[in-house]
User: What shape does this take?
Amino acid sequence: MLEPLQEPFMQRALAEVVLVGVAGGALGCWVVFYGLSYAAESLAHSLFPGLVAAAIAGVPLLLGATPAIVVAALAIALAARIAGVSREAAVAVVVTTMFGLGVLLALSPQSPPGVEALLFGDVFGVTDADLLTATGLVVVVLVGLRLLHGRLLVAGFDRGTARSLGVSPAFADAALLVLLAAGIVVAVQGLGNLLVVAVFVGPAATARQLSDRMLPMMVLSATIAALAGVAGLYLSYYAGTAGGASVALTIVAVYLLSLPAGHLRATRRRMLPAAKVTIA
Amino acid sequence: MPAGPLIEAAGLSAGYDSAPAISAVGFSLSAGQTLALLGPNGGGKTTLLRAVLGELRLIEGTLRVRARCGTVPQTERSRLDYPVSALDVATMGTLSRLSWWRRPGRAERRAAAQALDRVGLGPFAEETFGRLSGGQRQRVLIARALVQDAGVLLLDEPFSGLDRPSAEGLEALIGELAGEGRGVVIATHDLEQARACDLVLCINKRQIACGEPEAVLADVEVLEATYGGAIVEIPGVEGRAILPPHHHHH
Assistant: This one.
């Protein structure tokens, strides 16, 4: 068990998956309840040209990812304003365009070798600088979630009356998307463009089976994501499988294993007597 | 307690764009009064509630609201799968008083717990909102409005989908809350519930009538104009019952 920990690359990879797990797991609960799973996947794919451009220029991936995600968000907002184009269609068009642009760049002669790491992640290639950046972004995500918790809860519960409770649903949506973008930028290094959505949806869906309150669910989801990340890395180390894919598949396996527990819990609750109103 | 009526509207037109969804609305609600807002689906009841909340642009007329309004939506509009307890929902009422970066603390949760006690749901504070009965959920949302320190309660179809005992219990609670000096506006389809209020405002895109229930509800022409003639007599039931178009009990 301790042997992999002797390797510096493994130490950095473990730190990376724990950071990704904490941010992705906590954010993921909001992603699931706000119905943003498709948006999370789309935002991740939209980063691709930025990541490739950063790789070509030899600069940190974050410098490419950030402008790409801003361009994608603006393009989606603009496309959705075209009459007859639904938001879903706008997202699909923009994401396909951005991803296609990324593929064109990736297949160009200037593209450095190893661009597939951007698609599937390179968790063992994480540097100390990457870890520092990831730590900063995870702190931003967690502080953001802490500050916005009450507002996110209200806007997700009943959008129609949120305003009368002093909460703007549009602000809650925008703030959550910004935090999600930051979380994706952190996670894409380890899990890659195509697999990153796993950490935002899988642990949260697992925690949903096991908890009925938002805060415990977020803590549980973050713990599951971090532990699944560590387990995935061990699997990768001993089985010689790809790091990012091993983490993603472990997350999915944990979700599948949680299904019987969730079913059992739901059955037990149904058997409890229904709550009766007591009117004073 | 503010001087004068809690809500005063005169010649009010309001809507979602330049075309008014409601027009020529005029009424006055004083502290301790209950007002039933009667009208068909799509007749403008929710629009009027939103105008009172200040969420819509007024096109014409005046509207003065002299108290904080707490809205109590239909419970079907809330997420029943949401991971929140009754206490969490009641605590949401404290947010408008807090700076955006502050989370509700112990004092806010204590106020929410007291509001749940007030509506008779103290023992259910930790129950998941979606697992409560329809009547209990409605009470939780009333508690949330009480936490907002609302002088006016705006209830949207509060009796929809409730069985008779739950509806009667809720009616008694609303009466008590009005008795404490609050104004209460109840959007409803139910003529019998409307009869129990101090005032009735009939609306169908425009105001049809407003006044005491004995006068307004006795006028067949008013009811026909409000509901477009879809009025049915139910044998064996005292008085007249309304069968609103396209309305389904859940």
Notes: Chain A touches chain B at residues 33, 146-147, 149-151, 153-154, 156-158, 160-161, 163-167, 208, 211-214, 217, 269, 274-280 (CB under 8 Å). Chain A is about 80% helix and 0% strand.
